[in-house]
């Protein structure tokens, strides 16, 4: 069991000191909870990989309090500065050429580093108090559903870590969008998340492609964040463009359905467990609640889960991306 700390000034001071000295602390961010450690200490970074059972080939995101702090870790180009000015603090991770100060283990030996300045006030406080950049992947065992509450972290990693800071449920609910601008003339989105491709395109004044999943699947971890199977519940999950009343009428009590929005018309009788992501059909609300819903239904002892895809636009794109990965067959990762 880990200790779950409330974010009081005294607790945050103590936890920031633990982080500065090289300890691990699970922390809230506006996207999902992260498992943080001092990014400048190779030993601490290795401890993150161990606790998550994460392969050393999958690099970490480094969190910073400011653009100035980012400039110590990476070479900031005009394109990078533009993105930081528009979206930081917030759910955008930017991949840049790294400086020698970043240990190789944090970037899986690669020449680039992924950097983000998170918006959550508790995480910002820990960054300032520790005075260190904090490497933090999502605080879940590798390959499983990302945590959006302190309790999710305890359920997944409680046996392997000592400290969790409770910052309440995450406001965004899906991970940050990752944009690779390490070659400034060819920006590319590696993962869709809290910021949409359209928002990024509007700031850069041109469309920014989302990296093709098929390429990622075949490639030797060139974009390791995009392993096809990820975010996975233990219960099998099947996806549907639409969940119909006929499907619900036929369903049995050991099936669970996650609807994007309520079904139109009169309520129907069903033996299945039915949950709705957004009463008003809002993709951002669906994103915020998605992982908590998967955690909940995964623990409900059901035989089969079903989920309805969101309309493929705006925040719905990130929702569908996570659902597709959650439903993908185990690939050995
Ligand atoms: O919202 C988020 O980004 C959360 C919170 C805690 O900040 N973090 C998160 O970290 O989702 P993680 O490790 O679960 O996912 C980040 C992904 C990794 O899978 C990794 O492959 C990719 O980012 N990544 C990290 N550094 C990279 C790099 N230099 N080039 C390409 N991809 C990179
Ligand atoms: Mg993750």
Would you give an account of this structure?
It is a single chain. The protein has 333 residues and is α/β, with parallel strands linked by helices. Helices cover 32% and strands 17% of the residues. The protein is built from eleven helices and 14 strands. It has helices spanning 9-21, 42-52, 67-71, 78-87, 121-130, 150-157, 197-204, 213-218, 245-250, 283-298, 315-327; strands at residues 3-5, 25-27, 34-38, 61-63, 92-97, 112-116, 134-135, 163-165, 177-180, 188-191, 237-240, 255-259, 273-276, 304-308. The protein has an eight-stranded mixed sheet with strand order 2-3-7-4-6-5-9-10, sandwiched between helices. Strand 2 and strand 3 form a beta hairpin. Threonylcarbamoyladenylate (TXA) is lined by residues 29, 31-32, 34, 58-61, 91, 93, 95, 107, 110, 112-114, 116, 118, 136-138, 175-176, 178, 190, 223-225.
Task: Give a quick set of tags describing it.
single chain; 333 residues; alpha/beta; 8-stranded mixed β-sheet; 11 helices; globular; binds threonylcarbamoyladenylate; binds magnesium ion
Chart the SSEs and their pairings:
Blueprint: E1 3-5, H1 9-21, E2 25-27, E3 34-38, H2 42-52, E4 61-63, H3 67-71, H4 78-87, E5 92-97, E6 112-116, H5 121-130, E7 134-135, H6 150-157, E8 163-165, E9 177-180, E10 188-191, H7 197-204, H8 213-218, E11 237-240, H9 245-250, E12 255-259, E13 273-276, H10 283-298, E14 304-308, H11 315-327
Parallel strand pairs: 1-8, 4-6, 5-9, 11-14, 12-13, 12-14
Antiparallel strand pairs: 2-3, 3-7, 4-7, 5-6, 9-10
Helix pairs in contact: 1-5, 10-11
Bound molecules: threonylcarbamoyladenylate and magnesium ion.
The site of threonylcarbamoyladenylate has 28 residues, from strand 5 and strand 6.
């Amino acid at each position: 069991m880990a200790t779950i700390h409330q974010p009081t000034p005294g607790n945050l001071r103590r936890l920031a000191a633990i982080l500065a000295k090289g300890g691990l602390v699970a922390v809230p961010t506006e996207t999902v909870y992260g498992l943080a450690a001092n990014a400048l200490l190779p030993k601490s970074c290795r401890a993150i990989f161990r606790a998550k059972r994460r392969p050393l080939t999958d690099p970490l995101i480094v969190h910073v309090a400011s653009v100035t702090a980012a400039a110590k870790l990476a070479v900031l180009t005009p394109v990078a500065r533009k993105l930081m000015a528009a979206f930081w603090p917030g759910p955008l991770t930017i991949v840049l050429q790294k400086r020698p100060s970043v240990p190789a283990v944090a970037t899986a030996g690669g020449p680039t580093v992924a950097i983000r300045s998170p918006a959550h006030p508790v995480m910002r406080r820990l960054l300032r108090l520790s005075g260190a950049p904090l490497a933090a992947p999502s605080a879940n065992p590798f390959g499983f559903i990302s945590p959006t509450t302190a309790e999710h972290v305890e359920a997944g990693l409680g046996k392997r870590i000592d400290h969790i800071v409770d910052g309440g449920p995450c406001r965004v609910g899906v991970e940050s969008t990752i944009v690779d601008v390490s070659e400034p003339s060819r920006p590319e989105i590696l993962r869709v998340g809290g910021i949409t491709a359209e928002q990024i395109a509007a700031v850069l004044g041109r469309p920014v492609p989302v990296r093709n999943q098929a390429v990622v699947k075949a490639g030797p971890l060139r974009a390791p964040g995009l392993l096809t199977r990820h975010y996975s519940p233990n219960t099998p999950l099947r996806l549907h463009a639409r969940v119909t009343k006929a499907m619900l009428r036929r369903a049995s009590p050991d099936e669970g359905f996650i609807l994007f929005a309520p079904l139109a018309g009169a309520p129907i009788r069903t033996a299945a467990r039915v949950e709705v992501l957004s009463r008003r059909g809002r993709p951002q609300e669906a994103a915020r609640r998605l992982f908590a819903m998967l955690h909940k239904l995964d623990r409900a002892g059901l035989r089969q889960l079903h989920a309805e895809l969101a309309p493929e636009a705006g925040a719905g794109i990130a929702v569908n991306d996570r659902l597709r990965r959650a439903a993908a067959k185990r690939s050995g990762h």
